[in-house]
Amino acid sequence: MSSTDAPWPCILSEPRRCADEPTARAPVMSKQPAVPRLVPGGGCHAGGMHRSTGSRDPAAAFPLPALVDDAAERRQANRAIALSALGLALTGMIELALALLSGSVGLLGDALHNLSDVSTSLLVFLGFRVSKRAATERYPYGYERAEDLAGVGIAVVIWASAVLAGVESVHKLLEHGSTSHVGWGIGGAAAGILGNQVVARYKLLVGRRIHSGTLIADAKHSWLDALSSAGALLGLVGVLAGARWADPVAGLVVTIFICHVGWEVTADVLHRLMDGVDPDIITAAEAAADGVAGIRHAHARARWTGRTLRLEVEGWIDADTPLAAAEVIGRAVAEQIARELPEVRSITWIARPV
Question: End of a domain among 250, 273, 296?
Fold first, then answer.
């Protein structure tokens, strides 16, 4: 029986085991019989590298019909990071100067939050920078998780700014501190609202376009700053009306807003780090695979690594299906899934015999 007629289960996205490859590195197999593994086009691999693709990513040997321009996405992300950092630095410095002039703790908390956004922009930039490194033997899936880890840094900065804003507000409330130059403070708060709204909308637009959870988290951080500015503005208006307590109370309200968004960002980041995905993605992938001729049943798993949504599909096919035919079925599955879920960028196809 030839290799193309053998009813073997095949993992089309992994490299074929060469005859001279040491058996000590062979993976632990299930109860199914051990079989050769093929990639489209064949060819053994040396040093863990596919000769046909030059990539260590197993799914790179089984490409999707639609390709994503990663370089273009990185340029969009870097542009968004740079422009937003510049805008937030300018807004934060204006607010900080006016907060020190007026003594408004609400405006001070907002200014510190704006300046913290500049530091989170640096974290996002570093995450994108590291994630572009090529995969290695130690990190066979590459460094795309660096973008998700940058989200952890963003969450930490948000919680730190919440603590600082809360402490300052409580101190002023207990010490009955005064607020002066209220008009200048109101102008600074208004500038904060405008600057943060523009930056937040821009980063959110780019983040959704390139499927970057980290950039979306940073956009939420900027959106929070706009709410913080609104709270500071209301506090200063209250002071202007004669309520001296309005400013520290506004600072506490701002702190609550910061904690709320900090919770949301932390939950989103941990969801990705724990390989959480929208269940609808799994349902849609399995439905797409089940609709392909030759598939008896299909199971799918998915996870995000940075901006890459990776999908693993197990398809149960007739046990007497030749390997070449199993590969054709796998490619049909990939094409169908690509049409139904264009956000999927990596598919590993595993054929199982029935």
Answer: 273
Tokens 């709204």 found at: 197
- Say if residue 49 is in the same domain as residue 110: no
Residue 322: Cβ-neighbour burial (10 angstroms; 0-12, 13-18, 19+): middle
Q: Are residues 88 and 232 in the same domain?
A: yes
DSSP secondary structure letters along 104-139: -HHHHHHHHHHHHHHHHHHHHHHHHHHHTSPP-SSS
* 77 located within any domain: yes
Query: From CA 339, how far away is CA 354, in angstroms rounded?
Result: 27
What are the backbone dihedrals phi and psi of residue 188, each rounded to the nearest 5 degrees, phi first?
Answer: -65, -40
**Distance, CA of 228 to CA of 261 (rounded, Å):** 11
7-53 residue pLDDT tens: 344 434 333 333 344 444 333 333 443 333 433 333 333 444 444 44
Domains identified in the chain, total number: 2
Q: Do 147 and 170 lie in a common domain?
A: yes
pLDDT digits (tens, 9 = 90+) for 303-345: 988 888 899 999 999 999 999 999 999 999 998 998 888 888 8
| Ordered DSSP codes for 130-163 | HHTSPP-SSSTT-STHHHHHHHHHHHHHHHHHHH
- Is 171 within the bounds of a domain? yes
The pair phi, psi for residue 274, each rounded to 5°, is: -90, 15
**Distance between CA atoms of 87 and 81, rounded to whole angstroms?**
10
Strands (E), the chain: 45-46, 49-50, 297-305, 308-317, 344-353
Range of the domain at 254: 70-273
Same-domain pairing of 259 and 285:
no
* Lookup: tokens for 120: 């989170």
The model carries a pTM of: 0.64
4 part of a folded domain: no
